[in-house]
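Quick one, T. Sequence first:
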Amino acid sequence: MEKFVRIKGVAAPLPLANVDTDMIIPAHYMKALTRLGLGRHLFRELRFDEAARERPEFILNRPACREAQILIADRNFGCGSSREHAVWALSDFGIRCVIAPSFGDIFAGNARKNGLLLIRLPEALCGRLRREIEFAQYAPIEVDLAAQQIRLASGEAIDFDIDPGDRRILIEGLDDIARTLRHADAIARFEAAT
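Structure tokens:
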């Protein structure tokens, strides 16, 4: 898993509440055996019309946001079924961080396991951030996990809280296997004793 210490990139405002995992990646695009390429199906029905033409009004199709690394969403992002593919599609597209008032529980667990930083901020603050990002014409912002701060192009710094265990996992880039392997000596001793 890629380490997450800090990123500086474009943030795309997505003012939609209750974005479920089927909206993030529709089920019929989850037949792939690998994570690679899932990003092209991210928000498929929002990004493309029935003839597979881009919808120019959708935020990730706008020139300034095609390379967005941060989404500033609304409440209950990632609700619905337990599709790890939703996190994979976001990551494959290039999204490294999602900021929202709340997240679906299973989505949040999948995000942590796959190196996607989720930041919970109050709903009013998320709304203000979306407006300020647009007003600043999508100027890059910085998300600093080590300092637990978001730094806007205006110079404003916004502190955020995160579970210390989640923070450590992301900063060190430890997936489930890497965390288990940190205990290889203890596992070997146990196996030798039995």
